[in-house]
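hey can u check if this looks right to u? its 184 residues, i copy pasted from the old doc so theres a chance i mangled smth
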Amino acid sequence: MGFRFRRSARLGPLRFNFSSGGLSSISVGGRGASFNIPVSRSGGPRTTVGLPGTGLSWSVEHTPDRPAAIPAGPAAGLPNSRRLRSGQLDALKRSLLGVLRQELFAPGSTGEQLWDHGLVSRLLADRSLGARTAGLLAVIETPEALEGYLLRAQGQDDAKRRAQRCITAVQEASRLAAGRGWLA
């Protein structure tokens, strides 16, 4: 277990909890019952009820229910990258890789044709492509390039951005290859 630093200060009914990184949360209540609101740490508000002096307590984290009518943000349905436990980010990246391969490069798909006929490499050899387009297409040139690009993601949002870039790359490569008459 690593070294921890914690200090708190009271101002009326509020307790300000500090960690080595600064203000971490604000609490209301005291022995027996408290409500804690995170400021710079992960997680949601938490209510704790306990029996003072016994070491027994019950705690629940409050998570807001998102109504279906509210559009989801860029990381909807996925845990905050600060909350990912060891191995969860790798599992997320592997899952995204599996979905990309299944949806974009399935047997008989345009993506499979791009790889089987080396069309992305042919497009990259074309000097008339701009640097931005060439950089986009390079991420899907081979199955190994796609895998390496996605597995280098540094967090959940980065992994999702990289997966979206792969989708955009397949769309662009398909458009360019079809424009040259290379796709049936």
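Strands lie at 6-11, 14-19, 22-30, 33-38, 46-51, 56-61.
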